[in-house]
Amino acid sequence: MSKIHAVITGVGGYVPDYILNNQELSSMMDTSDEWITTRVGIKERHILKDKHLGTSFLAAKAVEDLFAKTQHTPDEIELIICATTTADHIFPSCASMIAGKTGIKNALAFDIQAACSGFITGLELGTAFIQSGKYKKILVIGAEKMSAITDYTDRTTAPLFGDAAAVILLEATSEELGIMDSLIHTDGIGAKHLQMKAGGSANPTSAETLEKREHYIYQEGQAVFKHAVSNMSDVSAQIMEKNNLTKDDVAWLIPHQANLRIIDAVAKRTGVEHDKIIINIERYGNTSAASIPLCIWESESKFKKGDNIILTAFGAGFTWGAVYLKWGY
Ligand SMILES: CC(C)(COP(=O)(O)OP(=O)(O)OC[C@H]1O[C@@H](n2cnc3c(N)ncnc32)[C@H](O)[C@@H]1OP(=O)(O)O)[C@@H](O)C(=O)NCCC(=O)NCCS
Asked: Which element (helix H / strand E) includes 312?
């Protein structure tokens, strides 16, 4: 019997309309377009302005986009995996909120928390569910309302993040396509460098935590930068080597979009030419778990069946990894 592969057969996405550009940010805090552009590579980010709408709103729009493009219906979906750090509520899950908003009623649905590595972790899980033989149609979503946890009085983090959602449909196939390999790692030493200090069980919300602004992203930028550069570069090179892929065999490299300088380092280490690296950080900023599927959504028309694609991500935890896939259509 031939091996069951999990292949991406469709993609949907959504970004909110409001654009917060570097000029507007510079009027809110002591920063400049020049600093943000040269240090990070971001010009603008999309923000969901409505305070009463959460991540599930963005994700449901992305799922509706996927259904409209692929002609699939909510009834066919058997599993929803939502990678997010900014679920609407601590409970219920964002995945169940998305199911409610999109009319999906026949699916197991849950969230995963692997920060900016959430989407590749979701793909890893989705692939295992497909290969079990029990599930045939799975939505893997990366969705974030990062603006809800971004401190717009802190110039060291405020310019970095944006809101977005994107989703892929993962299906079973006996063809030699889809997810071929993955290398995913975790190192808990990272927690102290990148976290939200309050609002969880170790430090529940109180007047004091609010006063100390501990419900926003806390990041030690330089420490995170160093780990991101070395780990994303190493794991990308490793997955290529493990699968005997030279830089010429790779059609596309899709890195998590946190900092253009990190992306450049991954390009240098793998040798993959710049025109084969998908980059949209300039227009969206770091959308955490949404960043890789957002790149896939925007670049879908460039991909050809059988293209070798490397995805790589790094995030809080620390978590990081790479996925090697063959494009399915
Ligand atoms: C956050 C990040 C962009 C900061 O860039 P950096 O080059 O490391 O900058 P530093 O933190 O060393 O700060 C350099 C100087 O710029 C200043 N600065 C910081 N943010 C600024 C801003 N928005 N505008 C102007 N100046 C700023 C700092 O205060 C510092 O000033 P000083 O030298 O007078 O002390 C970068 O460290 C980074 O991308 N880190 C990794 C993020 C990441 O990958 N996250 C992954 C998971 S989400």
From this structure: strand 308-315
Among candidate residues 22, 231, 259, 286, the one labeled active-site is 286
Joined together, the tokens standing for residue 302 give: 């460039």
Active-site entry in 22, 256, 259, 295: 256
Give 12 Cα–ligand 1 centroid separation in angstroms: 32
Q: What is the pLDDT of residues 309-323, one digit of tens each?
A: 999 999 999 999 999
Taking CA atoms only, the protein residue closest to ligand 1 atom 36 is 221
What domains are defined for the chain? 5-176 (3.40.47.10), 180-326 (3.40.47.10)
Tell me which DSSP letter residue 134 carries: S
DSSP, collapsed to helix, strand or coil, labels residue 246 as: coil
Got the DSSP string for 139-157?
EEEEEEEGGGG--TT-TTT
**Going by CA atoms, what residue is nearest to atom 17 of ligand 1?**
156
Helix, strand, or coil here: 221?
A: helix
Q: Is 315 in the pocket of ligand 1 (CB under 6 A)?
A: yes
Annotated catalytic residue 193:
no
186-240 confidence digits (pLDDT tens)? 999 999 999 999 999 999 999 999 999 999 999 999 999 999 999 999 999 999 9
The tens digit of pLDDT for each residue in 144-195 reads: 999 999 999 999 999 999 999 999 999 999 999 999 999 999 999 999 999 9
**CB-CB contact of 94 with 88 (8 Å):** yes
Nearest CA to ligand 1 atom 41: 225
Active site residue 256: yes
> Which residues pair with residue 109 across a beta bridge?
80
Structure tokens at 283: 């227009």
Tokens of 27: 């009027």
Q: Global pTM?
A: 0.97
The answer, yes or no, to whether any atom of ligand 1 lies below 6 A from the CB of 113, is no
Calculate how far, in angstroms, residue 36's C-alpha sits from the geometric centre of ligand 1: 9
Active site residue 82: no
Amino acid identity of residue 44, one-letter, is: E
